[in-house]
Amino acid sequence: MTRLQGRVAIVTGAGQGLGKAISAALADEGASVALLGRTKQKVDDVAAELAGKGRDVMAIGCDVADRAAVDKAVAETSARFGRIDILINNAQGGALGTTSTATVDLSDEEALEYFRTGPLGSLHLMQAAFPSLRESPHAVVINFGSAVGVRGAPRMAGYSMAKEALGGLTKSTAIEWGKYGIRVNLVCPAAWSPAAETFRDENPARFEQIVRGIPLRRYGDPYDDIGRAIVGLVSDDLRFLTGATLMLDGGQIILR
C-alpha cells in the first residue's frame, strides 16, 4: 500500500488511541510520520513498534500547548524528513473520560486546559507547519472535533466549547489557505479509545445507552474505521474537499 509514498505527516497525540492508529494507517500507506506526544515514552514505544514493521517514523516529545516545543518539533520533523505534507491535529487534553462538570461549576482553569491543548495547540501546529505546507503540492490539515461540539452535551461545556472552536479554526483557515492549495478539514469521530474504555467502566449503563444510539450499534475501530478514513482524506482521492466537517460516528449525530 503506497498511496502516500514520499509524503511526510505529523500526528499529535500519537502515543495511544486514535493518534497511534492514525499514525499506523498513514505509515502503512508509505508516509513518513513524526509521532508527537506529551509523554515521550509512549511515542517512543509506538515508534519502536512501527519501525519494527519497516515503517519510517520518528518520536518527538511535545506538549502542543507549549509554542516553543511545537516550533522545535516541527523543525525536527523538517530536518529529518525534508518536508511536511500532512498535519493531523489529534491531541486534546483536559479531563477526558474521567469527570464531568456542571456549567455553573466550570472553572476558568478547567475550561482553559481544553482550549490550550485543543484549538490553541492545533493553531500552534498549523502556524509552525505553514511554511512547509505552503510548499507541498499535497498539503492537508486534519483537525479533530467532536459530536459533543456539534450537538452539545450536559456537563461538558468546556470540552464542547473547545471542539466548536476547532470548527471555526478549520473553516476560517480553509478559506484563507485555499489559495496555497492547502486543504483543511474537520473530523468528528466516535471511536474506541482509552477515554471511551474508562467511561464504559465507570458508567456501564450510560455507555450501553450511547451505543444503542449509534445506528451502526458500535464505536468505530481506531485503525479500520478512523485511520483508514484519514488516509482517504489526505490522499489525492479527495483533493477537492476543504472546509468540511466529516462525522465519522456511525450515524450517531442524526439521531440526536
Automatic annotation (TrEMBL):
One Pfam family it belongs to: adh_short_C2
The record's section on PROSITE patterns has: ADH_SHORT
Q: Where is the Ketoreductase domain?
A: 7-180
What is a single molecular function from GO for this protein? oxidoreductase activity
State the source organism's domain of life.
Bacteria
The UniProt keywords, alphabetically, are: NAD, Oxidoreductase
Family matches, as InterPro entries: KR_dom (IPR057326), NAD(P)-bd_dom_sf (IPR036291), Sc_DH/Rdtase_CS (IPR020904), SDR_fam (IPR002347)
- Bilayer-crossing residues are none
Q: Does the keyword DNA repair apply?
A: no
Q: Which family is annotated?
A: Belongs to the short-chain dehydrogenases/reductases (SDR) family.
Q: What is this protein called?
A: Short-chain dehydrogenase
Originating species: Mycolicibacterium flavescens
